[in-house]
Write a structure and sequence with these properties.
The protein is an alpha/beta fold. Helix content is 42%, strand content 12%.
């Protein structure tokens, strides 16, 4: 994946982000290990220093396996101040019900966990939201903002491509990492969220990553797993159909389908329109 920018030429968006962060006394960055939160944490560490910039990874059942270790490794490599918190969205029946506002209750739980950490440090909670994120159905953003979170990359007018360009310029290994949204996003709205289902989806996606598919979703539809990979990988996936079926049957699915429309982030949101 090319950013179209020279590694040695600082993207203009980087200075804009630095300016936005310099206006803050201290930040607690919600650090998922994806490119957005990675850029935010990395630049915040540079601008504010380790005493005023803390990266915090939220642990929950909806986080894919290995992601906490991934965040720990990045923080160690980059010298970030880093810690973890546990979130309790699974205790909220509004989240478990999985209606169109599920993300609101997820972000509410995240803010409930991060806000005390931020208050103790005289900091604000900062989320890695970019301007492209504003176009999708994401009620969690409203919930976070209502609870005092700030979006420095939005304030810096950074789109996703600019975030990746900044990451590429700074030599961050996650610059081209595929998005890793929470596992609950694989369940159609109205399907109650359970630890068992999240674990099944997690194991299914881990199995397919073991085949070399790094950018994928396994959408859960009762006994059916609907596999999404980028359109340019559909032929490869079809050629490995027998392996994919065997792996997904082993985690509990009776039927396995390959979505010929290809990977579409957030496509289950179409049910809300």
């Amino acid at each position: 994946m090319s950013t179209g920018l020279d590694l040695f030429a600082a993207p203009p968006a980087l200075d804009a982000l630095r300016r936005e962060l310099s206006r803050l006394d201290a930040v607690v960055v919600a650090f998922s290990g994806g490119v957005d939160s990675a850029v935010l944490a990395h630049v915040a560490h540079e601008v504010l220093g380790p005493d005023r910039a803390l990266a915090v990874t939220a642990r929950s059942a909806s986080l894919a396996s290995g992601e906490v270790d991934h965040c720990r490794s990045l923080a160690e490599d980059w010298g970030l101040s880093w810690t973890t918190v546990d979130t309790t969205e699974m205790d909220d029946p509004r989240y478990v019900a999985n209606d169109g506002d599920r993300c609101r209750w997820c972000k509410t739980a995240l803010m409930d966990a991060l806000a005390p950490v931020a208050r103790a440090r005289g900091a604000v909670v900062a989320l890695g939201v970019n301007t492209d994120d504003l176009a999708d159905h994401r009620p969690g953003q409203d919930a976070a903002r209502e609870q005092g979170a700030v979006f420095p990359m939005v304030d810096a007018d950074m789109a996703k491509a600019e975030v990746r360009a900044v990451a590429h310029h700074r030599g961050l290994t996650v610059w081209d990492r595929p998005a890793m949204p929470c596992l609950s996003s694989r369940l159609p709205y109205g399907t109650p969220v359970t630890v068992e289902l999240l674990s099944r989806v997690d194991r299914a996606e881990a199995a397919l990553r073991g085949l070399g598919f790094s950018d994928l979703r396994v959408r859960h539809h009762d006994e059916t797993a609907r596999v999404e990979v980028p359109r340019d990988q559909l032929t490869l996936a079809a050629g490995r159909a027998a392996e994919i079926v065997e792996l997904l049957e082993a985690v509990g699915y009776r039927y396995v389908t390959l979505d010929l429309a290809g990977l579409r982030s957030g496509n289950l949101n179409a049910a809300l329109s």
